[in-house]
Amino acid sequence: MRGRSFVSATTVLVLAGATGCSGSSGSQDPPVPAPPMRLVAYDGCDALLDGLRRATADKVGPYGLTDGPPMLALPEGDTALRKGPQSAEAPDGAQGSPPQHSTTNSHEAAADEPDLVKTDGRRIVTLAGGELHVIDPATRKVAHTLDIPGPRGLGPDGEGQMLLSGDRVLVMTQRSMMIPFERPPAPGMEGSSKPVLPDEPVRPTPTTRLTLVDISGAPKVVGTMTTEAGYMDARQSGSTVRVVMQSRPRIDFPTRDGRSDGGRGEDEAVEANRAAVMKAPLDAWLPSFQVDGGNGGAAKKYRPPCDQVSRPASYAGSSMLSVLTFDLAQGLGDPQAIAVTAEGSTVYGNGKSLYVTGTPPQPYIPMPRRSSAKPPEQRTDVYKFDVGGKGRPRYVASGSVKGDLLNQYSMSEHDGNLRLATTTSRFDPGNRSSQSSVYVLAQNGARLDEVGRVDGLGKGERIYSVRFIGPAAYVVTFRQVDPLYVLDLADPRRPRRTGELKIPGYSAYLHPVGDGRLLGVGQDADETGRRLGLQVSLFDVRSGPRRLDAYRLPEANAAAEFEPHAFLYWPATGLTVIPATGARSGGGEALVLKVEGDEVRRMGTVTHPKDDGYGRSIQRSLIVGDTLWTISDAGARATDAATLKASGWLPFG
Fold first, then answer.
1. Which of 55, 287, 546, 609 could bond 247 through an S-S bridge, CB–CB 3.0 to 4.6 Å?
2. Whole-number Å distance between alpha carbons of 166 and 471
3. Count of other CB atoms within 10 angstroms of residue 83
4. Cα-based distances in Å from 7 to 11, 116, 464, 631
């Protein structure tokens, strides 16, 4: 769920081999103006409907809309090097202050991200088995359990995700759109190779549910919201939560299996589908959000008002990207939705600004012309919203850059400028013309204009990870040679490459640990690139990047390689906890390391009791006071953070 990012389960960052380079400058080409990516409002509902119909008809093929549902997203999280790892405690002297505790490993400290586990030091709240469990860390007991109604989702967080604000927990669950089963063929048609679809079109059921729970005492549901829109991601600042949704047209196409009922050809099928689009009502595009405030009143249905829907100036999209706003202290009510008729893929926020990116839609091209058609230029469109207040987000600017983003870490706002790292041709394994770039965009009225860039990173490779830290950037590309590039972005108009590191193996995740050092979690590898097992490396990036130390666990891998929320670093002691699995462990355990000076040393492991082989893999870890808590679907274990002596096991269910 993250940007969330749209990636395979083995997203990795590679650091390989040791060379240095200095003084490498950025592109010599002058910055080019961004395309006209400002958003424009529609002149009323009639204009909105006409624009949506025309944009959708342009994309329709013989099978209906061919873009399909969005990919599943993996959540991400981290913290900037200059800010150090996240921790939280109440103000000094506050009566009843909770013990010092860790918080979710989010990209930006001012924008909390949804996760499986949350804590405020007094309570640990986690999702497992479709239930919300509230743990009292002082008594080491599960204080309360509440069944969470709604769908069980797919993806890395099938149990859902949640956010915590005071005594309120917002739980987000999602499932994929309903797919109709093929009904049995008619008599005499048993040998037909064509699937027989239902006579009546199947309408999708609500796919996303937000459940607001009050945990001031025994947990109780105090509000719900359901929608057919797909959940993308969310960010929280204080009690204000912004939820980003993506929806696609809900149109009953007459040619669901590539042919019309009259046996027409492809061209006629396209025309029939386009005719259905031109007759569809506005509600086929505008998502609805049904809210039950939990006060005993009737549920209310909300849609984005026509005057709150915009489109990019250069094109009109058929999908709808919606941003909802909730104040958890006030409960669920009008989500104050705003919408953009565009695709969405990646979300990045820092508390003041919210960025959503997507790719421009492509028109349908008939089969005879596809092989000769020029491939569309890879571009990423960026929409910036002001979310500094508590009300509706305010659109402020848009821009566009060449290439594709890996995930939300490919973006960072610094001193008012947005930095992005992209790769061209990243999805074509056989294409060695790919290369990566870092762009710096500055806001100019309603546009995000390019003011500087560095090109030519990892030619023939693609980006595996990006880290922006203050005025510096670290970009890792990989195919067979594994360089980590260091970039100086202090002058946004003249960014330059200042260093490069190559060593065997790679790091899929980098975490700042203070004093100009980064901890990398990934895989060891031989000279052929064959992976050998988990590798945790400590790097010095203050000048020319170099590796200081490494710890290896053969035949193992770590969840943090693709899910940063699974990683814990506690700055007070250097404690580092990494859930790991492998052939030797036979299941999941938490590897506990300690970073001291220029060394990484192993303290031990934490395991959960064996059951049927499922549910005991440790997913998250956190610190409350002097106790290390590890969480799995089976339960929670309390362990002394200094000695790793177990002090309690709390089974779920």
1. 287
2. 34
3. 13
4. 6, 20, 10, 25
Any residues with CB less than 8 A from the CB of 369 and at least 6 apart, and which?
A: none
CB 123 within 8 A of CB 137: yes
Sign of the dihedral through C-alpha 108, 111, 117, 122: positive
Contact 542, 598 (CB under 8 A): no
Res 174 pLDDT > 80: yes
Is it the case that residue 258 has pLDDT exceeding 60? Answer: no
Angle between helices 45-59 and 266-279 (to 10 degrees): 170
pTM of the predicted structure, to 2 decimals = 0.83
- Residue 32: alpha-carbon gap to chain centroid: 29
Select the more confidently predicted residue: 253 or 440: 440
Query: Rounded to whole angstroms, how far apart are CA atoms 600 and 594?
Result: 6
Q: Which two tokens stand for residue 332?
A: 């669920």
Nearest to 229 by CA among 317, 153, 288: 288
3-state DSSP call for residue 635?
A: strand
Of 613, 620, 558, which is closest to residue 127 (Cα–Cα)? Answer: 620
* CA dihedral of 364, 369, 371, 376, whole degrees rounded to 10: -40
Which residues fall within 8 angstroms of residue 453, CB to CB, at 6 or more apart?
A: 26, 27, 31, 437, 438, 439, 440, 495
Q: What digits encode the pLDDT tens for the residues 31-53?
A: 444 444 456 677 789 988 998 88
The whole-angstrom separation of Cα 109 and Cα 79 is 7
Q: Which band of pLDDT confidence, cut at 50, 70 and 90, is reported for residue 541?
A: confident
- Beta strands in 91-206, from DSSP E residues, in sequence order: 101-102, 117-119, 124-128, 131-136, 141-147, 161-165, 168-174
Q: Provide the phi-psi class of 416: left if phi over 0, else alpha when psi is between -120 and 50, else beta.
A: left
Query: Taking Cα atoms as reference points, which of 407, 404, 411 lies closest to residue 428?
Result: 404
What pLDDT, in 10s, does the model give residues 568-605? 999 999 999 999 988 555 567 999 999 999 999 999 99
d(CA 208, CA 247) in angstroms, rounded, equals: 11
Tokens describing residue 376: 């569309």
Q: Quote the Cα angle for 361-354-155, to 5°.
A: 65
- How far apart are the two ends of the chain, measured CA to CA in Å? 26
Mean pLDDT of 177-206: 42
Mean of the per-residue pLDDT values of the chain? 80
Contact (CB, 8 A) for 272 and 254: yes
Q: Is 597 left (phi over 0), alpha (psi -120 to 50) or beta?
A: left
Contact in structure between 78 and 409 (CB atoms under 8 Å): yes
